[in-house]
Amino acid sequence: MSPKETPGQQGLSEHYRRLFYKHASVEKENERYMTEDDFLSAIAPGEDFKKIQREQFGLLYKVADNSKKGLVSFQDFVIFQNLLSKPDAEYEIAFRLFDVNGSGKVTFDQFKNVLSSNMPKDAVAFDFDCDWLKLYIGKKEGHHELSYEEFSQLLKGLQGERLRQEFKHYDKEQSGYIEPEQFQRIILDIAKHKLSDHVIDHLPTLCNLYAGGGNKITFSNVVAFHNVIRNIDMVELVIKRAIDDSPTKKITKADFLNHAAQVSRYTVFTPMEADVIFHFAGVDGASGTLSIEDFGKILDPRWTHPEPEPAVPVVDAEATKQKSGVLFEIIENAYAFVLGSIAGAVGATAVYPIDLVKTRMQNQRSKVVGELLYKNSLDCFQKVVKNEGFAGLYRGLGPQLVGVAPEKAIKLTVNDFVRSKLANKETGELRFYQEMIAGGAAGASQVVFTNPLEIVKIRLQIQGEQAKNSGAPRRSAIWIVKHLGIVGLYKGASACLLRDVPFSAIYFPAYAHLKRDMFKEGPDHKLTISELLMAGAIAGMPAAYFTTPADVIKTRLQVEARSGQTSYNGITDAARKIMKEEGFKAFFKGGPARIFRSSPQFGVTLTVYEILHQAFPLPGHGPTTSSTASKSGAGQEVGFGPLRSRNALKMLLDLDYRFGVYKVPQQLPGTKA
């Protein structure tokens, strides 16, 4: 951070950088640039380009392209974003578009050429020789050039002059009346972008504003409607205050005018303007007493804030410094370790009976006489309960709970670490294959804990059926550990790697993308418990099933073979013998049970983990996010949204709702190159 750059400015700069490099697709001489499509994706995410067309947002691209080379650099992008943040952005955007030469002045020729070339061909031609324009720039010969401030004032009054000229154009007989269809055309030309669909549909009904008016609309009616639209923010303020003060939460025209007089020093709305408001809000009914829902029909949500825009993150340098110490890191890691341990224990306990059934099914050797104890997973479950009692379903749970804490902790930690190292330095994004690498690394690291845990757990789980068949004594977990020794505890480690690496490589990216793409997780959408549970469970299904063959081989290698059973000498030998003796289907024994175990286990574990983070936040710590949150998509990119970009176009759209659909010539007549 430069000496003069504040923490807030540093946060903005970093945000602009991430947003730019996320969308910039052109690289020249080791520099990245935005095309027009890139630029629009960055400044108008989610825009449907219906009321405001894509070409009109393209006007902003012309303003941002300072070099006029057809590409926007990072510096151009930062300057443009700074321009959008100004309170008078809509005026300055318009001024820069009309100031073709960048001289800081707008001439009569520039004003005429830019306005004419951006207006639709079927629009009512603007009379550039009118007295109104001469008041601003003098006579056509010897006119003076307009500064930014003067041009802004002209622009504010230009819509009213267009309205007057269009009314005069349609009232050829100067009767003071026009047809409803002509009124609709005038209003759509200058204000369609500000109108709700309800108002647009009912524009011709203005002729019914007063009884006896016939099927005609007066100039007074047109001006009254235009004033209402221009002052719609004040309309909304008065309506909300009046309704808040009303016991019935409904108001009349008298209530509206009374409150309008209270909020302003001078009269804001005329009686006719109040009539216009109540006419369009209550066009479907004639009660004269309206609620906030009725008035909502005249307010276009595109120009309001239905939800606050996500704030640009501001870096608090002092707080960051305090949280970067060794002690804080130790506390933070211990906090995550404890929560991960609890979540892992809850997840393991919830599905342990299914895991026991899966292990028994995988160890069943179909070529051994009398060995087929179980017909299927359900039969296995029923026989375990019948022969060993309900407690038999939880045989070997102790070692599982002891090992699951470090297993989950190291898996999540390594996944986060590798993701941070592989992420794009500019944008923080990850490609899908990088997400898989991070997940695979996490799966490999956990084998240090999972292999000893698995071999002890499996031997305890098998003891029940061994005791029933051969009368073998039951052994404790401690006895098994002493009997196997350090080397024996890692028997089948290669098979464990063969299972855990692809499992995590599939699971972590799938979970992150399900949250982002299916459940739309983002800064403005926090997932519910059911959504988190579903994301975790769905991601676990393919990860569990496609790694079942490796799990079968691992189980066979880790179970102590009994008399008459085939013994195996490594992964290749086990795979060959299983294929030869039992067929291909044997590799997917316990597959359904594995899905029913792994899928809900990970769903429960990660859901509990996130719930614990919310229920027991670390004191003095900011909002936490799941370690599996995806950084690879737009859903996680905090953006400004299209609201600021739409607002920047307000003054141009006031000239005509189709302004900008036609291209501005590269070289305008009467201007210097």
Automatic annotation (TrEMBL):
InterPro entries membership: EF-hand-dom_pair, EF_hand_dom, MCP, MCP_dom_sf, MCP_transmembrane, Mito_Solute_Carrier
Chain positions of Solcar repeats: 331-421, 430-517, 527-615
Keyword Repeat: yes
Localisation per UniProt entry: Mitochondrion inner membrane
Stretches with biased composition (Low complexity): 624-635
Annotated keywords: Calcium, Membrane, Mitochondrion, Mitochondrion inner membrane, Repeat, Transmembrane, Transmembrane helix, Transport
Biological processes, Gene Ontology terms: malate-aspartate shuttle
Molecular functions (GO terms): calcium ion binding; L-aspartate transmembrane transporter activity; L-glutamate transmembrane transporter activity
UniProt domain EF-hand: residue ranges: 86-121, 158-193
Topological category with respect to the lipid bilayer: Multi-pass membrane protein
PANTHER family named among the record's database cross-references: CALCIUM-BINDING MITOCHONDRIAL CARRIER PROTEIN ARALAR1 (PTHR45678:SF9), MITOCHONDRIAL 2-OXODICARBOXYLATE CARRIER 1-RELATED (PTHR45678)
Entry protein name: Mitochondrial aspartate-glutamate transporter AGC1
Organism this protein belongs to: Phascolomyces articulosus
